[in-house]
Amino acid sequence: PAHTMIAFNIISGEYPGCSDSLEYIDSREVPSVKKELSLIALGFIATAPTFASQQSTSQGFIEDSHLDLFLRNAYIKRDYRDGLADKAEWGQGIIATFESGFTQGPVGFGVDGIAQYGVRLDGGRGRSGAGGIDFFAQDNDGRAKSDLAKFGATAKMRFSDTVLSYGNQRPMLPIVYADDSRLLYESYTGTMLTSKEIDGLEINAGYLTDQQRKSDDSHDSGLKSLTFGGASYQFSDQFSGALYASHVEDVLNKQYLGLNYKQPFATGQLLILDFNGYNSRLEQEYADVQNTGRSNSIWSLAASYIRDIHTFKVAYQQSSGSTGYHYGGYRNQGGVGDGGNTIWLANSYWSDFNGEDERSWQASYGLDFAGLGLPGLTWTTAYVRGDNIKTAETSNGKEHEWFNQLQYQVQNGVAKDLKFRLRYSVLRVSSNASDYNVSGNEVRFYVEYPFNVF
User: Fold this and answer.
1) Structural contact between residues 190 and 178, judged by C-beta atoms closer than 8 angstroms
2) DSSP class of residue 323?
3) Rounded CA separation 417/295 (Å)
4) What pTM, to 2 d.p., does this model score?
């Protein structure tokens, strides 16, 4: 994602400027964050500008409300190498999201809701259970659930252009991103603040106390708490930046920096430079359980050149420190708990190329068939090669992946926005790096149809 920002650190209250390195958040300071978030919310309300805002133009609770449905049929199959059993899951999901408007007045109130239901079409005993698929959680007998239903609600209030909410949350930020890329959505419970009082500046902060995995209706994923804050800023039409920090209780402190620059040339030509970087430090007890070191820095720099219907991209990614980059997973399964999409790095496809000391290169090509008379059809292919992976067996493990994706979205008519997506990856990992990653072939096929009820 091309989100970027340079801003003050909400958690520490300090302005880091453009320092090349981000300071770790001292975990001893974290208990005060909940109180600081409350003060921040009150501060925005007290200092909100008097000019027209989202709240001042509110039409009302009912008038601005809408209900959307999202149908998704998803299939993922992984053909593993090295004697490992193949895994595959197939399901049909339906997701209904309701968002109310805000009541009129200086402070508006509203309620949101989400209902999700999934039916397993394939992927029973022996084929389910892959962490990277995770459509349906397994029961104690090893069978995947035959269906899944879950619900959530959120209460919200708005003053000017600042929204404070509590309840079911689906943050989509570089340091906590609820996974929406499988059958059903991952979600959290907690408090979030989003403020857009200054043009071009978006501030986000939150305190989350529980995580609901995408494949289960249980709220007990083992997460104790996750505190985060940061902002993104659009400096100009061409340059934007983002800076965020998070603390997952008993697990890690993490910071993110992103910078994005777009330079248009002649008609139909554009150069995009995209930098994304993370700095993490694990808690000692968690590192001991993982049998790894505590620190990691990982960054990627991508350059994309768009010319009419063609997109050419090259990228470099570097991981360093005493451990690889940790993200996602569930706490009661040894994971971090900060969301399955919390890896805004260029070389992330099936493999994330995030091993200890790993460095990787990418070459990618994309084609938009609209210029060839087939609007809505796109194709992307990428080759990524990584080396220098440090494991218990070697200091130079290797992996490479060839990625392909073909996508078509209906442009008009009754089925407008119906989307078909076929993805195929070939991943090969050297035998001396097998405790980091595993070789295999992967197929994903999704059919998605979003539509508005009212």
Assistant:
1) no
2) S
3) 44
4) 0.86
